[in-house]
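Escalation from tier 1.

The customer reports that the assembly of two entities below gives different structure tokens on two consecutive runs. Tier 1 could not reproduce it. I'm attaching the input and our single run for tier 2 to review.
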Amino acid sequence: MGLEYVRISPGFEKYMPRDYVDLVKFGQFGREVDVMQLGQFKELVEEHPMCAGCYMAYFIRIFYAALPKPEDTIVLGTAGCARLALSQAAVPFIYGNYGDTNAVASGLKRALSIRFPDKDKDVVVIAGDGGLMDIGFGMTMHSWFRGEKFTTIMVDNEVYGNTGGQESGMSPKGVQLKMAPLGKKFDKINAVQLAIDAGCVYVAKISPTNPKKIAKVVRRAIFAARKFGPTFIHAYTSCNIEYSIPTREVLADARKREKEDFKFFEWMTDEVKEYLEEIERKEKERKKQEVKS
Amino acid sequence: MYFVAHIHENECAKYNCKQCVLFCPEPNCLNYKESGHTAWVWTDRCKGCEICVYVCSDLLKRNCIEMVMVKAGD
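Tier 1 run:
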């Protein structure tokens, strides 16, 4: 943790793998990158074993590019597709048992704030709909009730994709899946409303169709969590395998869903709004000065 | 044999748009060359999902990316 941990000791550069040297020289550590510069810097995720055309992988790629301070961040995940990419990144990753990510994150965040009282250490949970809204439901809700200061991101693929396609609480009503042939009989859980009612200070719902918007939402959620309390992002990340979406149509599907039930939604308390506007104003001024100089 | 994206660099350099890079789900796979103002593919990392082709051809109507078969060692 911290920049010292990332840097290569003098004299050891020629023995380190090329990818790691690139990561330190041309990566995100110690400097702010704009997500629109993707493809021009070394990304934190080196490679990942997720399916071709997986938009959960895409969301995770943008998430890492958007991290305000990757060297001071810890990511938590649980069983599910997301952990396949999360564990390949150059950011410390903790693999919780199924469903206990938010409980682990609560303890971790408290410990970090005692150990580093004068530093911002970000804790981010990224788990699927099963990990957060089905099996981990109790722990997720209680971390919000307690007002724990970390970010929870739900990458919602609306199915248990790893285990053959069982329905989850987040699958839309009536959908037929490989392991749910009769069709789902209940409505999709309204996770966003639950988060607002449970005491989150910043809540957003997004479909990954615009990298700039994803980055903005992720950064806002992390900044708000540092100071005020729990934050939550509900992201639609389709499963092209279980929902049989041709890989070429994955983005088209995300755009379609954005028009239907995944319209961009953002909610925050007044004090968070004030705080974020202040931060974003300062960022803009800094960028203007950089351009001038 | 792999099915990977191939960029027509001369065509791509005309637009300087970078949209395919921003929508690829693979990290460090579709990159951008500032010297030639064109995208380039790290062939070993491309899984052949064609999202870049959708962005370039269907959304932007620029037709700079094509899917091609390559053999190991190409």
